[in-house]
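User: I'm curious whether this sequence folds into something compact or stays loose and floppy. Could you predict its structure so I can see for myself?
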Amino acid sequence: MLAILRRLGLFRGSSPAAPVVERVFDLATGAGHAADVLLESRADSIAVVADHAGALDTAKALAGRGKKVTLLCIDDATAERMTVSERGSRDLTISSLPKHYAAPLSQIEGEAVLLTQVFCDGLSKVLCNVARGCLSSAAVDALIDALRLFLYLDAARFQAARSCLQDFGATLLLFQDLKANAGVIRSFAHHGGVPGSGRVYLSAAGTAIADLSLDSRDEGAPQEEGVDLTAGFSALWHTLLEHAASRVGGDDTHVAVCGNIVRDNYAPASWKLVEVVMRESSDGMIFHSTDFMDAARQEKTRVAFLERKLEGRCRVHETSMRRYRDTYPSSIFEQSARLKTAMAAALMEATRSQLPRSVLAVFRPRLLKYMENLFAQVIFMAEAMQMMERCRLVATSMDLFPVSRILCAVARDKNVPTIGIQAQLISASPRYRHAAAGRMGVIDSAQAGIFRALGTPEQSLEVVGSVNYVDRLRKMDALAGLEGAATDGRSILFAMQHSNAAQMIAMSGALKGIAQRHGLHILVKPHPNQELPVLHEVKRIFAACATATVLPSGSDTYACIPRCAVVVGLNSNVLMESALAGKPVVIAAFSELHPSIDFSLVGLALKAPDADTLEKYLLDIIADGPLSRQLAADREAYLRRNPQFSRPYTHDRIESFIASALHG
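Assistant: Here's the prediction. I'll summarize afterward.
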């Protein structure tokens, strides 16, 4: 464990002590005062970590005075609401704290997973002791996976705080809601003693900083005296089973489908499950959404089914604490409240010997919150056990998510078959887990290898293809057949991505030079969620290139692909789809690219490690040279291994896979 603590940057000698916040932060009472202090400081690079859009004004003011400023929002949604004009934006970068530091397969992602695992191991010990005789090992594993998913973002922010302090001359924490961001503040407090760190300024506009206790030296785990956890959990569990039987009983034989029909990337696979089950089975269907839905999301799901006239045979099962409180006796929640506090104390105690107290203080509020989620999941588990008595099959397109993994765990205990179809590509990231479903339909042979590496048994995997890819291949075929859609043999599509700012800017500079030297046309397609400062810089780069066109972020990528001779990018789905459609693809990997997201290794792209190689590859492809012909041969070899993507583009393999589970 000592090695793990050192790797995570948590060990500071034989007795790690919690820092006193006043020794770490320069305290300020408002954004204006903090900005004035930073303007006069010697720091050239400044990070502004914020929870509200108004922080952009402070960041602009600092950038306008010659400081290099990075505005890091607490979450992606806040960052995406930011807007900044092109003028003067070169000294201002906008991102989110997790996106900037915890990119897929990055060091911080791995560290965050490792830290999360410490808490998961602690929860495993608690549940194995508390829930013995009630929950199976498969059910316990599903609850632990839910904690892993729940806690990851907090762990990523915690590790990002250390890197932020090391990367910038000064950091300004600019929060409207101190209480909600106490974990982030404590993260910076913990890492504030790192040698060589920049200074940290904490601004609390409208709130007295003294009102927030950040000194965790004497803060212990929450206590709940006189609670016998094992007996209490057993009593609660059997009460839940009794009430769940009366609330979900009476359904005829059905198929349980878990998916997300209101989220673009996952909806096609989820609807495919619904479509095939409705067509191939005379049984009813109970649809479970990905996770615990609020009222608005619940209503969206119901409306979507009504619009397709499926409500008669398909019941949407609501999994929300609001419904539980409305339909279960209040005594259950009084009992679970006592257990929640006691179990949080047990979890803190289980990790106390492994993590410094200041780290436990960072995560304590989130662990308490998770205990509320845990009891919602336990209620759902009790309901699922009742529903599984009349369930023929569990089919999921959301294998990683809590509701899906709980359903699969309960189904396994009840000997109900389970299948999953993969909706999106995964990588070898430690964030991903082995498949929960007994049979998993995966996108291609390479993805099957990743699932195997994650611990999914070989016999559980079947290559079936992708609903998304087939739909997009059909769309590109249709668009290619339209009048005026002829390919420009000297045109290059640059498919941008978000979360890769430095790579996108480096690619832009390389492509501009290549286009100017050889008279090539560049069509730049930004990602729909492209960060505006990155987009502005890319526009500035290509402004000097008469043969370059930067398209709107919302334009149709798939209408562009048939018009271009070659597609350039990093590792997005667009590259995979372009290659499957027969377009030559070049990966501009000017920095390290993990093998699990490198399409060149499966024969679908050429990989250029630098600008000179990129130029060589592009000229060869445009001239239909030997590299171009070899790439075409490699693509054909890939399609022989993966005929699910050969013309005519159909969903036959996916539909047969689902139907076989219904009729087998």
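Summary: Confidence is low (pLDDT under 50) at residues 1-6, 11-23, 206-212, 215-221. Residues 137-167 form the longest helix (31 residues).
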